[in-house]
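Thread: Modeling a multi-component assembly for a lab meeting

Hi all, long-time lurker, first post. My supervisor asked me to bring a structural picture of a complex we are working on to next week's group meeting, and I have zero experience with this. I have the sequence lines for every component (1360 residues in total). Could someone generate the structure of the whole assembly? Inputs are pasted exactly as I received them:
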Amino acid sequence: MRIKRLEIGAFGKFRNYTLELEDGFSLFYGENEEGKSTVMEFVRMMFYGSSVRGGDAATNPRKKYLPWDGAKMEGAIVLEWKGRQLRLQRSFGASNAGDRVSLVDAVTGETIPCGNEPGEMFFGMGASAFERSLFIGQLGSFSSSGDKEGEMNRLLTNLVSSGDETASYTLVEKRLQEASNALFSKRGVGSGDKLQAAVEALEKEWQQARDLEETQRNLEKEILSCREEQAALGKTYETFQKSLKWKDKQKTLEEWKQKREQVLRLEKEEKAGEAARRFLQGRNGALADGDFFQKAQSAEKNWEVAEAVYEQAVREEAAAWEGLQSIKPQQESSVSPKGSSLQEAEEQGERLSQALEKARQEKILKNNAVRWGSLLLEKGKAEMEEFSCHQRLERLSQQKESKQKEVELFQGKWEALEREKEDRERCLEDIRISCEKKEETRAALEKERKEAAEKDWESRKKKAAVWSLFGLLLVVSGGIAGWAVHPALWALAALGVFSVGIAVMTVKRRKTFSEEEEQKLHRDIIELKGTTETFRQDLTELRRRLSETEEALKEKKEEMEPLQQQEETLNRNLYTIEARKAAAEISLGQLQQELSQEEKKLGEENDLDVLRLLQQQKQQEWEMLQEQLTGLLQQQGCSSMEELRRLCRESEAKNRETEASQREYKKATEARGRAAEALESAKEAFLRQIRPFAPSPETLEEGEARKIFASLEDARRRKEETESVCEAIRQSAGRELPSLADVEAAMEKLQQEMEMPHENVWAEDPEKLRREGEQLLEQQRKLGEAAAAKEQALQHLFDGRKTVSQLEREIQEKKELLEESKARWAALQMTQETMSQAFRELQSGYGPMLNQGAAEILSALTGGKYTGMLVDRSFGLSVLENGGSLSREWKYLSSGTVDQAYFALRLAISRLLASPGEGEAPIFLDDVFAQYDENRTRRGLAFLQQYAREQNCQIFLFTCHKHILRMAEEEKSGRICRLLKEKSLV
Amino acid sequence: MDTIRFLHASDLHLGAECSALGSLAGQRREELYRALETCVGICRKESLDFFLIPGDVFDTDAPDESLVRRVKALFASLEGTEVLIAPGNHDYISARSPYLGEWSSNVHIFLPEGSVFRFPEKETAIYGVGFSASYEKEPLLGRISVDPQDKFRLGVLHGDLTGTGAYNPITEADLRESGLQYVALGHIHQHSGFLQAENTLYAYSGCPEGSGFDETGPRGVCVGCVEKGKVRVEFRTICRRMYLRETVDVTGISGVEELEKAVKETLRERFGETFSQHFYKVLLRGECRLTGEDLQAAQLRLGETLHFCQLRDETLPQGHLQQLAQETSLKGIFVRQMLEKEKLAGTEKEKQLCRQALRLGLKAFEGGVTDFAD
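Re: Modeling a multi-component assembly
Sure thing. I ran the full set together rather than chain by chain. Output:
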């Protein structure tokens, strides 16, 4: 093939540019920016177009070389091929498909089909091989990696193969590798990798499923355990409940028993009360009522007062009498005849005793006599007083006992009332609390209801407003339209009215919120308040009664006090009187002893025998007189005559006193008489009161009357007590007490219903049973919740999960697929390996040729420095120095040598690929010597010129380097042209 | 009673997903249920005394409730036949197991602790043990104690006859010493034939319907009787469809229709007029000029006639190999080297690998290295 002429119609900066080309080596010089690369690109694109897409002018030559003036990119090449003069024309579009390519026989005008890449036809290679062989844009190494189609390989292979290779080794290897990577790749994205990952994931899921099964079993066990425990607790609770029921029944039975007791007691009390009432009924309709008692008590009191008065009168009379009696002896002694003989005897005695211890005996005797008398008197008085005291004590004791019983009765009543009051207060408190709670609930409900009602009201108001507004608008617009446009449009106004009506209805329609619950609560509250009020009234009444009872009790106690004091006083008096009495007796005894001693003394003295005899006689007389005297003195209470005289004087005084005393005594007697009358009267009045109640009214006596009265009082007390007790029983019962028969029937029925509870809980306190029962329920509830939660968990344990067996089946299926993939991958490995072996074998065919051809060229370029070259299948090369034994890889060569080596390779390839008989295709070189030094450049230029001549091919070298131009001119290296000289540029 | 008659079927796997069948999965699930109906039909027609099912009636321990209802109703309709089930490793007894619910009175479920069901009117005692989990590594046969006094003594057991493993390992010695006259085994989906261990006859019935291409060939149940101390059992094929792997030689075939015809005729010849209802994986072997597109078209056409068919291409380019091996092109050298390797391969598996490698290499020269089924 020969290229004759380039006609650049519009390409880059070139416009209507023509470049004539000649055979052999041609050097085209152009400075920078003068378009040498543009010319090279034009040639390439004329033969192969450009499949590069994109708007980037740096990479898309269709953009880069768009004519600057906007003209359509086009051109033509005139060439000679297979003996024909041809004209290749091309008008460039946006892509190869958009290009218009024509190949015309310049002589015959025949259009020859050439496709969009006529270079394939002309050079027997595609663009990739073209760029690696005939069209050297830049030097430097190249490899097969940029040749995705493996065209170079295919072409070289085709050199030595006999087949019609449609795919090169590179392409086949690429397909095999792609298939292998599709199964298993380094990045793990192949289908086999995914299957492997899927199997691993399934195995992991399988393990989780097994763990879940284990969890399932554990959960099942736990649930079973919970349910069993729950059941056991349930049984225990049942036992507790049975025990509690039994205890409740027992309690009820007790209550019935108490009721029975109450009924019996009521009956008894009622009987007693009835008996008392009957007892309180006297003859002729007489009734011992309050009025009677008041009168009888009054009469009794009067009687007592009269009695006291009488006694006082008696005492006074006695005192008066005593006084009178005390004065009498003195008086008698002073006026008695015995008084004179007594005096004589006394004179005699005096004379006699003067000689003998007149003073002593007289004194002693006198003292003793006096003492004896006084002691006797004192003893007598004490005895009288003691008797009086005992009587009074006895009466007082009776009164006190009576009062004590009253006090105890009132005390009992007070305690009963107190208990009742406390019960009422407790009930009241409970009711109050219940009331408060209900009140709170009611208030909350009311609040909720009101809020709901308000919300509803607001909602309805809004709706009503909207409807109203809408209605008004319709009315207005309907009216206007109906009046102005068409009467039929009045319907709008009607619709508006209807809308307003809806608004009104919305407002009116009230949503009733149920107040039932609230009203129920309210009724409950009212009822509770009513009950509260009743209870309060009862409480008030109780308090009042309690207060009254307290006051009565206090009163009774107060009444007791004086009696107590009186008793104490009387006791003290009695003690004093007894003491006095005892003292008087002791003194009397002593006095008797003294008198005996004195007698003895008088009997022992001799010289006084006569005297003594006389004295004895006189003594006897004296004694007799003394006795008389003593008696008299005793009577008078004197110890001596002086005293007697004094006494006489006193007696007179005493007489006077006596008289006075007599008068007093008389008064006292009269008073006593009156008192006696009054006493009788009072007694009679009392007896009159009592008579209607006496069995023998006619013969009723005091003691009996008192007894009867006391009995009546007892009966009244009993009656009141029974009534009080009956009232208390009825109130405590709360309502009508059932009959005894009903009570006993209920008790019998209850006893029949009762079963024996479980032994273990029989003895337990009901409250403890209830507490423990509640705890059991709580435990049971918690166990139930736990079991339910576990059952829930169990139910959802396998949600969205596969079972172990499902997973095993899936794993099995995936593993089968994985095995198939692995088998296929192994087959691909074998294929690749065998393919590689086959290629090596093939390479051994063209490889030597290529190596040799490239070595020759390299040797020529390097002046024989490098004489050997080895090219591998990816076009990596190594060179062998002249005389050297070790080859050096291109990576270790200088860039200039690498350029030369690859230049040699390219030329060798192009030489090998040259169509036989056609000569070599033209070679286009773009400043390939730019990196060369001068020597290399000269050798290169010389080589090219010679090569072109030897190979009979065209070699076009484009350069912008002046020194290359100069060297070419000096060496006369073929045709030397200047680009700019050929044609004008745009 | 002189004779008792029984049907032995297992591993129905009702409710299995059958996801590998794609759009046919639903139909296949119903066919599995129909296999059970067929068993029940045999029991009813032949008035069998017992229906023994040693495991895996259901595919999971918690099958769908509607399926359980159907099975319950089916068993309940079986009058005169006692159904005995020993749950297997798929339908083991768990808290959610349907076996814990109410079943008709003629259905008896063996529990994990081992149980015996006696039928005095038939003088029969049937022993069995159920699975309580996916695995039972300990032998379950030891949980039952057979009373030799019973006239008829049968066993129902799901387990693995290898004697080891995690699925109730059973040994021949265990069976020999069991004292049972017949042991209905389940777990293995392939009928084992009838084996004897002294006085005990035992067998796996296999599954009545296959569920994948690892269960190829006819499937069915065992029907037998025990008479005068002797056990007589036979295997009956009841499956509606079979899974089949078939190799078809397509040497010389050059067109889609020709291929379709060859495949159909081969299958008809082998499986009769009902050949179209089975599941097929057809391996195409031989030398032909069929392309990937041809094979794809042929599969589509076969799919219209056959219930299920997957073609696997193991063909080689027709008449090409020996000629190619003579060329000095890359392809020729490759073919020659591959043929040499095949010749040197020792096992069939290696030979098959070489053949597949050769096929893939040749495809690589033609274009993409994809199986038409990819």
